Every structure is written in C-alpha cells, then in structure tokens.
Amino acid sequence: MTTDEPAEHDRTENRSEESADDDVDTDRGAPRADGSGEASESSSSRAGTGDDHDGEMDESSKQEQLDEVRENPVGEDLTSDHGVKISDTDNSLKAGERGPTIMEDFHFREKMTQFDHESIPERVVHARGTGAHGYFQPYEDPDVGDEYDDLEEVTKAKVLTDPDQKTPVFVRFSTVVGSRGSSDTVRDVRGFATKFYTEEGNWDLVGNNMPPFFIQDAMEFPDLVHAIKPEPDDGMPQASAAHDTFWDFASLKPEITHMIMWVLSGRALPRAYRMMQGFGVHTFRLVNDDGESVFVKFHWTPKLGTHQLVWDETTKLWGKDSDFNRKGLYDVIEEGYDPEWELGVQLFDEEQAEEFDFDVLDPTKIVPETEVPVRPIGKMVLNETPDNFFAEVEQVAFHPGNVVPGIDFSNDPLLQGRLFSYQDTQLNRFGSANWDEIPINRPVAERHNNQRAGFMRQEINEGNVSYKPNSIGDDDPQEVPEEEGGYEHYAEKIDGTKIRNRSDSFEDHFTQARLFWNSMSGPEKQNIVDAAHFELGKVERVEIRERMVYDLFNNVDHEFATRVAEGIGIEPPEEPGDEMPTHDREDPSLSMENRTPDTIETRKIAMLVDDGFDDEHVSTLRSALEEEGARVKVVSKLLGEKSGADGETVDADKHHVAAASVSFDAVVVPGGSESVDAMVQQGDPKHFVAEAFKHYKPIAAVGEGTKLFEAVDLPDTELADDGDLVSDAGVVTCRSDDLEAFAEAFRDAIAEHRHWDREPEEVPA
Ligand code: HDD
C-alpha cells in the first residue's frame, strides 16, 4: 500500500467483528502492532466460503470471502509451494563448490518456473489501471420524477432499491490505449468499471468517464483499436492517438465526431479518478416485477466535482509523477478520505425514446440532461485499497453480460457485441473458463450449477451428478422461477429480417457534437482547439488533417474548424452546406466548469518554506486548510527538519529534487524573511510558483512570501503592496497579519480549482 502518511481512519468499522482484532494493525492478517510479527487469525478462523455464505449480506461480505485466501508471511518460516521448509534460498544446489547446478534442486526449479510464468497477457485495451474496494448503498426513497411512484416501480433489482443494503463493490479505473507500464496522465478516455457483488449475483457496470462512444457497432471495435494503438510497423507511439493511423480512421468515420469532441476536451485529462464522472454509455433496460421495462442511462457523479489537468501539466507528469492518478487514489484512501460518487439514472420509456431526434440505441449519442434529468438513487464509497495489485487489480475481470434480475440489455449493437467480447477476452487472459473462480471475481451470492472441470478448477463439486435433468440427485440444483428470483430476459417483441446494415436513425453524426461545442466555456473551447493542434499537428499526411477539418469539424462548427485549420497548416474551410446542423442549443451539464462544488477536500497544497519561516503563518495556514479537508505538504530545498524564526520546526515532506508543482493543486508561500530570501536565491521555488501559475492553479503568498511572487514576475497580476489582501484570478497575496482572511480567500480560490481568467502564455515554465 502506498502512502505518505499512516492511515488515520478506522477501517475495522467496515469489517466483521471477527476481523476487528485489537492486536491487529489493520483488520486482516497484517503484522501485529506490538511488532511480534504474528499474523492475525482472520484467514484460518473464518468458517465457510463465500459460495455458501449464509449470513446476512453486507458491505463486508466480499472482504470476509477474500480473507479466506489472504496470506501473510510475517513471522512465518520460508517454505516451498508444497509446504516444505527451505533452508537456503540464495544458493542453487551444485556439484562441488564451483561446479554446475544439479537438476534435482527442486527449490531452484520451482522458484524459477514460477518466476518464468508470472506474467499474464495484459488487457488488449484498458491495460493500465488501478482499483479499490468499497460499497454501494441506495438512497431511501429517491426522487425519480413525476412519471413513477418510486424506483421499485421500474426495477426489481434490490441492489438499486434496498436502502438497507450496502453492496460490496470493486472498481477499476483505467486508461484505454496505453500498455500496462504507460503513464497515467495521457490524453485518453478513462475506464470506470464497477463490479457489484450483489446478493443476486455479480452485476458489472463497465463504463467510461465519457458518455458517448467512438463507434456504433461492435464490428468496428477491432479497427478502432488497431488504428489508435501503436502503429504495427514501428510500435509507436505509446498511449497516444496523435499519429496518422488513428486520425486516418477517424477522418473516414464521421460517427466518431461527437466522441472526438470529448476526447479533445479536458475530460480526457482527469485531475484524479475521484474527480471524474462515470457513464454506463449504452441505454440499458430496467425491468420490474411485472416484466415491464423502461430505458435507463447510468451516471456516476463524483462528490468532489469533475476536474481536469492541463496539457502541459500532463506531459510533465509523464516524467515526474507517472503514477499520478493511480497514486492519487491510493493515497487519499490510505490517508483516510473515502472517495464518493452518486449513482444517477435517466429514465425514459419507448414512447419518449421515439420523440428524441436521435436513436437511444446509438452509443455515439447521449440523452441530454436538458431532455431527461439525472435522478440520484444511491451512493458509492471507495474505502479500501487492494492488498495485492496482481491478485485484485490485474485479475479482476469484468463482463457487461453480468447482470442481475431487474437490469437488462438494449439492442444497442455495440453493447450486443460486448456481450461476446468480454467473456472471450477473459479466456485469453486467464487461459481458462474458470476465471470466475479467482477470488476477486467470485460472487458473494451462492452459486451451484453443472459447470465442471477445466484448467485451474478450484471448486470440489461433490456427487456424481453434473447434468440436468437428473433423477439421481433429485434434479438439483433446481431452476428458479422468475417470481422467486430467476433471471428472465425482458420479453421484447422482435420482428425483423436478417440484415447487415446501419439503421437510418444512426445517421446524424454532428448535432450532438455541436451541442457539446456550444456547451463549452471559452477556455474549454480553447483547450479543445489546442488539443486538435497537438493531435493533428502530429499527423504527417496533410490529406488526413484536411479531411478531419473539412469533413468532420466544419460540420460541427465553422468557427471551430477555422481555428483548428489555423494551427495545422491547412487552408481555412468554406462554410458548411445547409444540411449541416446550425442549432445553438446548449446543455450546461456538459461543461466541467458547472461541476465545481464548493469544496477543497483532498486537494494537495504545497507550502514552500526554508529555514527561518514565519512560525505562525505555517501553523495557522496548515490547520485552516487541513480543517477544510485539504492535504498540506511542506516542500523545501532539501528534506529534513526546517526551523522557524521563532523556533518551531517542521519536517519537509518533499524536496525540490523530487517534487514539482505539477503534483499539487495549489501553492502557498508563508512569510519569514530568512526563508523567503533563501528561496528568492533558488531557481526551484520560483519555477514552482511560475509553473503553478502557468497551469492556472491558485497560488498564495503572505507577508514576506509575496517577495517570491515579485521575483517571478507574474504577467498582468496585481499583488498586495501594503496591508491589503488582494485576490486576482486565483493569485492571493496579503501583506497584513490577517491570516484568517488570507486563508479564507485562498480556500475560495482553491475551491474554484483552475483560474482560466489568466494570460500565462508568457510565463517561462
Ligand atoms: Fe470495452 C475492457 C469500457 C466498448 C471490448 N472496456 C474494458 C474496460 C472498460 C471498458 C472500462 C476495462 C475493464 C477492466 O478494468 O478490466 N468498452 C468500455 C465501454 C465501451 C466499450 C464503456 C463502450 C460503451 N469494449 C467495447 C467494445 C468491445 C470491447 C465495443 C468489443 C466488441 N473492452 C473490450 C475487451 C476488454 C475491454 C477487449 C479488454 C479487457 C477486458 O475486456 O476485460 O473485451
């Protein structure tokens, strides 16, 4: 588990009493706090397996099941895989002191074989990711609009409707294109896959952080992925769409246009996984007890708001903090903050669906919130990091086909294809149909069937019956009628002719792309244009750049296309034809600027100091920010203890050698002449401030600290020059001793996240 600080909150509250052993440092087989090295009894003393879990299901059910396979070597003897104690694991068995190794050395052979086979194929997409455990809990009586009395009227899925039920979940976040070892902060869609271990079986909601998708039919997926992955001849570039084959494909696939607008926007550069929306993307169905169905779109909304990084920052993070998003998730959970999302639904029936000017089965379309509001129905909390990355994050396997009664599929052709692909890909990754028996994938719900054998089978199925019907075993296991919880597919009436085509209703590729563009703020539009300049600027073939601008972007918005053309060396486009959309509709929910709640929780603040800092500034500011949930880190030239002017000391958490402004959300410089004078003489603190300014981050200085800002020369920025407090586009400065007002103004600037009303282009950072 990676963390800068020890866990502060009590994780035992999420576990059974059995695992909340006072002697145990964490609540499972971790070392004892007294250092005796004895592992807890949790793994051996717990009776039963998840498969015959007979107690009440609760949020800890999955953890209890996992406890059965957790292993901890603290205080134990080294053994072979087969339990034989090993006397020497450093020297192979040799014929004579300087002689060759002997074949009979079973320990050498076992150790080496295990090592040689310890990698499995990485996911063909979404290879790089991270994950966390938590729970989902429905709200009591959520408002689902006037059309329905309550949620039970539309779905029988208890996981969504029973407020007394906390369903354990495991969530994996990922980038799509890069391989397992690529950087976190690349421009890409992010995967947001949630496995709900419900009492009615596993439900996997395998979504993304953007609501539309690139293509309309699963048949096109291999082409899309081949085009965007490194080019097959030279294996370049890694984790990037910015190359000819991707934009060649895109420019010939107008259906991609809407998604491209999202991918060029800040949505593709999330500040943190905990600050990212999630979407089920497809239209799904909810089904009630009477077998009636409505359509649904699923939305995850993060409590901390939806925030982005800026491009220059992301490229620096590739080198300076390439695990930025992965580490961000681990760190906050370990430091005691449990990220939270609301699950919301957009509900609409077939008649409403027919009224829309798009087809709800077309995954390149969203249902605008201006048409159907998102109704929050429950919350998800992530509160536990994995113990073992491979066992949990790498081996977790999702499948959109995993649904529970009350949740069903639509005929979206992308979704239909996914229902095949995920099972198939797991066979490739695990080499066996028994991937569902791997601990992280096992349901907590009971399971009994006649599936048998195969590579790595874990279950020991008793008896001689593995078929149905049977009389020898009373025909067990029994089928379950729908009214008693058996899954029944929604009885949709289908009447069609076999045909390989694309429905006419999937034809409009630009109306929603334009809606997205219209809904962006000025700076968000500029970010999209800048991103297009980078991406298409990397495309060598002019005709591809031209097709993107003339055939796609120009049909979204002429001004947008013209601005893109300017930066990539092609002629500006002509006005688009009359048949192209000209509407000026907007959906405010699409702009991230409208998704900024007034909070600074979990924001990471760098406090720049050197010896001789103002003691009161440091302690008052730190507590004011930490009280609001921010995480303050002291950054100095070197690690070690720093002394204040009045004798207080602080330990530097980070030094300039290893820390950069890109890893922080905001910067504050306390006073103290000696400290500030020293920093004015150093390049790193000035660069730190300039770079944070360039990335539109809140920066603040108090007392003599303002001298550091003067030394940096921030363009067009007003700084306090007497006793006043000045807050100018997120630059907060104060020369007086009114620390409370200063901290408050800084806090407000942090809550805004980025200050786009700056002109940082001239800043050399
Ligand atoms: Fe997919 C993985 C999300 C379309 C085929 N997909 C994968 C993951 C996510 C998504 C989050 C990572 C799961 C994990 O963390 O293990 N995929 C989506 C979304 C899509 C989508 C939101 C469109 C709505 N995917 C899609 C299509 C196909 C696939 C159309 C193929 C027909 N996806 C796969 C896959 C992966 C996968 C090849 C790779 C690893 C895996 O499944 O488990 O089967």
Question: What's the arrangement of secondary structure elements?
Answer:
Elements (H helix, E strand, L loop, with lengths): L41 H4 L15 H7 L38 H11 L12 E10 L19 H4 L5 E9 L14 E9 L2 E8 L12 H8 L15 H8 L5 H8 L13 E2 L4 E4 L5 E10 L8 H10 L3 H11 L5 E9 L1 H6 L19 E10 L4 H6 L12 E2 L4 H18 L80 H9 L2 H16 L4 H15 L1 H10 L36 E5 L6 H13 L3 E6 L3 E4 L5 E4 L1 E2 L10 E4 L3 H8 L2 H12 L4 E4 L3 H7 L12 E4 L2 E4 L4 H13 L14
Parallel strand pairs: 11-12, 11-16, 12-15, 16-17, 17-19
Antiparallel strand pairs: 1-2, 1-9, 2-3, 3-4, 5-7, 6-7, 6-10, 7-8, 8-9, 13-14, 18-19
Helix pairs in contact: 5-6, 6-15, 7-13, 14-16, 15-16, 17-21, 19-20
* CA-CA gap between termini: 33 Å
Report the CATH architecture of the domain at 129-230 and 270-441: Beta Barrel
Sum up the overall morphology in one term.
globular
Bound molecules: CIS-heme D hydroxychlorin gamma-spirolactone
Largest sheet: 10 strands, antiparallel
Outline the low-pLDDT stretches.
Answer: 1-54
Number of β-strand runs: 19
| Structural class label | alpha+beta
Overall description:
There is one protein chain. By secondary structure, the chain is α+β, with helices and mostly antiparallel strands. Among the domains are: 1-74, no CATH class; 129-230 and 270-441, Beta Barrel (Catalase HpII,  Chain A, domain 1), CATH 2.40.180; 604-762, Rossmann fold (3-Layer(aba) Sandwich). The chain is 27% helix and 14% strand. The chain is built from 21 helices and 19 strands. The protein has helices at 42-45, 61-67, 106-116, 158-161, 221-228, 244-251, 257-264, 311-320, 324-334, 350-355, 389-394, 413-430, 511-519, 522-537, 542-556, 558-567, 615-627, 673-680, 683-694, 706-712, 739-751; strands spanning 129-138, 167-175, 190-198, 201-208, 278-279, 284-287, 293-302, 340-348, 375-384, 407-408, 604-608, 631-636, 640-643, 649-652, 654-655, 666-669, 699-702, 725-728, 731-734. The strands form 3 sheets. Strands 1, 2, 3, 4, 5, 6, 7, 8, 9 and 10 form a 10-stranded antiparallel beta sheet that branches. A 7-stranded mixed beta sheet has the order 15-12-11-16-17-19-18, sandwiched between helices. It is globular. The model is unreliable at 1-54 (pLDDT under 50). CIS-heme D hydroxychlorin gamma-spirolactone binds next to strand 2, strand 3, strand 4 and helix 12.
